[in-house]
Amino acid sequence: MAKTSKIFICSNCGATYTKWLGKCTNCGEWNTIEEQIIDKTESKSKNLLSIYPKLIQDISYDNFERINLPSDELNRILGGGLTKGSIILLAGEPGIGKTTLLMQELMRLNGSTVLYISGEESLGQLKYRSERLGEPHSDFYLFHEVSLPNIIQAINEVAPDFVVVDSIQSIADPDLSGFTGSLQQIRECTVKLEELAKTKNIPIFIIGHITKEGFIAGPKVLEHVVDTVMHFEGDKNYGYRILRVLKNRFGPAPELAIFEMVQDGLKEISNISEYLLETYKPDTPGSSIAVVMEGNKPILIEVQALVSFSPYGTPQRSSIGYDPHRLGMLLAVLEKRLELRLNNRDIFVNVTGGIRIYDPAIDSAVVAAILSSYNDKTLPHLMAFSAEIGLNGELRSVSQLQKRIQETSKLGFKYLITAPIKENSIKEDDNYHIKLNFIANVSELANILFV
């Protein structure tokens, strides 16, 4: 007879408890602890005598073959194409375009067989969606199912080249305890799909939901099981979508690609910097250009700042697309090193385009924009910034400076403000047509901006 026991698992962080609690002591979230039934049926041990470690020289990886998708940008952020036998998790907000992205890419593959499994939409709804994407060039099968055994059986019968499961939160294995979308169901269903991808040597896309905080719904182990984690995001007030690769076992991470939502699907943007700087107006006080890295790709993006007198006792500090804690640090540095009086000023910082930047090289552009707005003076024409700022007000060097210089010069900028570097750390190129200004601290930065 099967033995069962109860445990309680936090749906936010995966911490386990022997009894129910209102608040998770590990992550601090309330009402996230759920009851799970664990089957303790003992399984017969397998004969392990035939298993023996292999020398690394004797192991072949020829089956890691790359598949080129129609989108060059998608191939680039995946590390040179889609790897056979890989399992890819694509997460994003409802209605952001996850289904559209996968359908249009897989429908354009010539001579391939695709099985699209949906647990949320009917076949008619999917057919209606696909009509605006054009006629499929591949054998595109649609299947509405929520039972994992039936899904596995359909994969075995159709023998597709690509599989999409939409979404992992909507399918369940009736042999497992827990309701559809529970931690145990999500974890075990993902593990079984991973085993199928490896044994059949077919790539499987898994679409996942996100929480209200923007994190991928389900246990953290879900991200550890899959080979690639992609996050599809974007401000619905804008026409473009951002695809970030957060984890990739077969390529570099993080990486970023931008797609524009048009009438017939998603259109890839090959030159991200030019697209983001279309509305840039250089003769506006409080506006600067930052050169940042997203993975291995340099991007130029506009940073805006507004500094005004505060009518309240406590001034406001707000930032969009930039870490508010880091903004507070930079303001303290400016008050200390430049003796600026900012305690009576409201300060707002915005990274245009709705993109959130994590590269600390944006610090110098944020400081330049704040100083420009504070003095109500425009910055020198065709000047860009790429340097981190430390607590002592020093400018610190950034990685992959050579690529940043190339991208800045290609877009026609004449000056690049950066931190001092070692001699011969970058290659001189007569085709750059750009002047590098090596600035040591924020005092020198303020002097060169407003001479």
Number of alpha- plus pi-helical segments:
11
Q: Quick one: overall form? A: globular
Number of strands: 23
End-to-end Cα distance = 84 Å
In CATH, what is the homologous superfamily of the largest domain?
A: P-loop containing nucleotide triphosphate hydrolases
Uncertain residue segments: none
CATH architecture of the largest domain: 3-Layer(aba) Sandwich
Computed over alpha carbons, the radius of gyration is 26 Å
Question: Helicity range of the residues?
Answer: 10-25%
Average of per-residue pLDDT values: 87
Report the top-level CATH class of the largest domain. Answer: Alpha Beta
If you consult CATH, what is the topology of the largest domain? Rossmann fold
Count of individual domains:
3
From the helix content, strand content and strand pairing, which structural class follows?
alpha/beta
> What spatial order of strands do you see in the largest sheet?
8-7-9-10-6-11-12-13-14
Sheet with most strands: 9 strands, mixed
Beta percentage is 25-35%
